[in-house]
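Cross-check.
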Amino acid sequence: MLLKTILLKLEQQDELKEMIKREKERYLKFEDIYKLRLLGGDERFFREHIIDGKVYPHEVLTPPQKRLKNAMRFFQQKVEQVKDIEVLKQMKLKIDNMEILVFLVSEESEASCIFTVVNDRGKLLTNLEKIKSF
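Predicted model, tokenized:
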């Protein structure tokens, strides 16, 4: 969502329009292939209203849809506050240079252990958080 809002703001610069089109295809959606999929019943909402930018529906939203909508608005407000286009370009460059760690495990119990270690920030995980890792 942060990247989407950065690209939308950069797209307002005429000299960047073609580059932004390529970046949207690279990160968000190429033709009808979405680059990120959500699990569960909110994937359609995510695709239509977050990625494609359609107007939010008037009908009652599910709690996860409300959270997606609020998160998108949060990022839109923060990015809108940035007046220097160079700052946005630097933010996008940092996103481009991010690395993703992949841990391959042979057993599910190892995955649970890794989840616990990675998410333990000095505060013990609740039983619910531990169960969610499964």
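Residues 2-96 form one domain. The mean pLDDT is 86. Passed to J.P. for a second look.
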